[in-house]
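in:
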C-alpha cells in the first residue's frame, strides 16, 4: 500500500493517489477549486497515455535534469496542484539540482501563498520564494504576473509544471528556458516550452531527480550533449501518437 492507502497493484493506482492528494490539498487551502478541474483534465490524458512515463517523456526528463544542473539560477515553480501532489519530490529535486523553489499562483492570494510555503517547509523546503512578489512578468496583469525579483525574476531555467498557457508564453518571452510538465501535448504551455514533458507530475518530478543524480558527475560537455540531442517537436509528436493509440485501443483489441 502507498501512503495514500491505495493498493500498489490497483489498476488505477496513480489516478487514485492523485485524486486523494488533490482532495486533501483543497481541504488544506493549498489547492484551488480550479485545481480540481485541472486535475480532471490531466487524468483523461494520463488514461490515454497508459498511466506510464513514455520513452520520449523519460528522454525529456533527462534533458530537464541536465538543464537544471547546468543553469546559472534554476527555479522550480510550484502551484497549488504541484504542492498537493509532490511536496517531497519537489524538495528532493531542488536539493539534487541546487534549484530555488518559488510559489507561483494563477489566482494569487496571500493566504494560499502562505499555506503552500508552510506546507513545503513542513516537507523540508528551505527559503521558499514567492511571498515577496517584487518582480513582474511583463505582459500579464498584476496578480498573474507577480514573481520574486531574486527568484523567477532572476532565473535562467524555470521548471513550470501544470502552468497556464499565457504565463508559460510570457515567461518564454522573458528569455527564460522553460521546462513544462503537462499531460496534454496540445496545451499552449506544452507547445511553447523549450522542453515539454508530457507526463504526470507524480512520475515526472522523481524521475527528473533520478536523472539529476545520475548526471551529478557529468562535465559540462556531457550535459550540453544531452541537451543538444533533444527535439521538442519529436517529443510532442510521440506523446500525441501515444494518446491517439490509447484512444483507439479498444478498436484494435
Ligand atoms: P493551456 O492554457 O496551457 O492551453 P489549460 O487551459 O488546459 O492549458 P489549465 O486547465 O490551467 O490549462 O491547466 C491544467 C493543465 O495541467 C492541463 O493541460 C492538464 O493536462 C495538466 N495537468 C493536470 N494534472 C496534471 C498532472 N498530475 N500532471 C501533469 N499535468 C497535469
Amino acid at each position: 500500500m502507498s501512503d495514500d492507502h491505495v493498493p500498489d497493484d490497483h489498476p488505477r493506482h496513480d489516478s487514485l493517489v492523485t485524486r486523494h492528494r488533490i482532495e486533501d490539498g483543497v481541504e488544506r487551502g493549498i489547492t484551488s477549486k480550479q485545481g480540481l478541474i485541472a486535475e480532471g483534465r490531466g487524468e483523461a490524458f494520463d488514461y490515454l497515455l497508459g498511466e506510464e512515463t513514455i520513452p520520449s517523456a523519460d528522454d525529456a526528463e533527462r534533458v530537464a535534469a541536465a538543464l537544471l544542473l547546468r543553469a546559472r539560477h534554476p527555479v522550480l515553480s510550484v502551484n497549488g496542484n504541484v504542492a498537493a501532489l509532490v511536496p517531497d519530490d519537489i524538495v528532493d529535486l531542488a536539493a539534487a539540482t541546487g534549484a530555488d523553489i518559488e510559489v507561483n499562483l494563477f489566482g494569487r492570494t496571500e493566504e494560499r501563498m502562505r499555506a503552500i510555503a508552510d506546507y513545503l517547509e513542513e516537507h523540508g523546503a528551505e527559503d521558499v520564494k514567492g511571498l515577496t512578489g517584487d518582480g513582474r512578468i511583463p505582459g500579464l496583469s498584476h496578480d498573474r504576473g507577480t514573481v520574486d525579483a531574486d527568484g523567477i525574476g532572476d532565473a535562467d531555467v524555470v521548471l513550470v509544471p501544470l502552468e497556464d498557457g499565457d504565463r508559460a508564453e510570457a515567461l518564454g518571452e522573458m528569455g527564460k528556458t522553460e521546462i513544462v510538465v503537462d499531460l496534454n501535448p496540445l496545451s499552449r504551455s506544452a507547445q511553447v516550452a523549450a522542453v515539454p514533458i508530457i507526463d504526470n507530475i507524480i512520475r515526472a518530478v522523481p524521475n527528473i531527480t533520478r536523472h539529476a543524480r545520475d548526471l551529478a558527475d557529468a562535465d559540462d560537455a556531457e550535459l550540453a550533449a544531452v541537451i543538444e540531442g533533444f527535439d521538442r517537436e519529436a517529443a510532442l509528436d510521440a506523446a500525441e501518437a501515444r494518446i491517439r493509440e490509447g484512444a483507439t485501443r479498444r478498436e484494435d483489441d
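note: The chain is about 55% helix and 10% strand.
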